[in-house]
Design goal:
Blueprint lengths: L6 E9 L2 E2 L1 H9 L6 E8 L2 E6 L18 H12 L1 H11 L4 E6 L5 H14 L15 H10 L5 E4 L5 H14 L5 E8 L3 H9 L23 E8 L5 E10 L12 H14 L6 E5 L6 H14 L5 E3 L2 H4 L6 H12 L26 E2 L13 E9 L3 E9 L9
Parallel strand pairs: 5-6, 5-7, 10-11, 10-13, 11-12
Antiparallel strand pairs: 1-2, 1-8, 1-9, 3-4, 7-8, 9-14, 13-14
Helix pairs in contact: 2-5, 6-11, 8-9
Length: 406
Amino acid sequence: MTTKPAFLSALGLVSALGTGIAQSAETLFGDRPADMCAHDDYLVDQSTILGTVTAPLDPLPDHLGHYDTRNNRLLWTAANQISDEISDVIATFGKDRVAVILGTSTSGIEEGTSGYQDKLTNGAWPDTFRYADQEIGSPAEFLRDALDLQNQAYVISTACSSSAKAFAAARRLMQLGLCDAVLVGGVDSLCRLTVRGFHSLSSVATGICNPLSINRDGINIGEAAALFVMRPDHGEISLMGVGETSDAHHPNAPHPDGIGAVAAMRSALEQSGLPSDAIAYVNLHGTATPLNDSMEARAVDTVFNHPVAVSSTKPMTGHTLGAAGAIEAAILWLSLQDIGNGAPLPRHIWDRVIDPAVPDINLVTETGHRLAPTDQAAMMSNSFAFGGSNVSVILGRGFKTKDAAS
């Protein structure tokens, strides 16, 4: 197996933070309000707040109209933001050497739901119904065809860890020599099936989610797409480590002591070659559900022997499910852009009512908080999914290039 660095040289991003990296950074680190919008058409006789992409989405190429779902339009909007970098990586390595690996959990399920409703109401499928829209692999297949790529293209779907696992898979493909570069990320769109499913589990917040508070009562679902170019030859931000574990504790509840979460964070640190005190910031999974937040706080308290800065950004994005790992890696990527002036950190939005049963961790609570200026920094994001699938991702800037672990 060859060993190569894995640089993340470009990022396309669309979410409740906004469209593009500039608007997203303004929301994360400044005072632009996130698009956390009340909707009354997802739950029966009840309004719910969802992380919503409110800007128009780019239409798909005319010859690919059979892929037309909101999920794929989100992905295409993100891809178009980095079209020059995508063109460059294709020109550098060739269409047969660029892979596509994404995470999702919804794909085109909302379009399928609408089709089923029409069938029940009118007795016939609508002309626009295409069963393949609902297939989990549709986003990767669409992006491959849109760019005329000829390497592997597939989707990982492990609930909330999906697109975090995509980073590990992408780097493995590069290390194995199966490709030279990867378009890697995640995409998920709002759909009634998902929102109602979480509501049936009593996991949906009554307002804006309130991570780590004693008053936390659940999540806000969100939609988003984040797409990176991963390549071995250049880039300011590198993928330094990915830790993957599975504790299989329960179908939809984490292990209360965070055993799998601790192991994932330690595995990512080992892969990166960094000690825990080299991590300057952790983006928490931070769903604002009672069990996740208490578990994760314990795990962070166990792994880090210094008061590492932490926050949950889900009150600004919603929980984007299959896209969450990529969105939160994107937040690290944005923060790492300006380490020379002191990396900006996203604030932790909550009611500040402490839960005495949760360990006291170092929450970033003020807008405009920055780390001390430095020439190198590493940050971690956590993703913990149903079934005990745990992933921690470490991105860094300024470190001497190190061959990735096999």
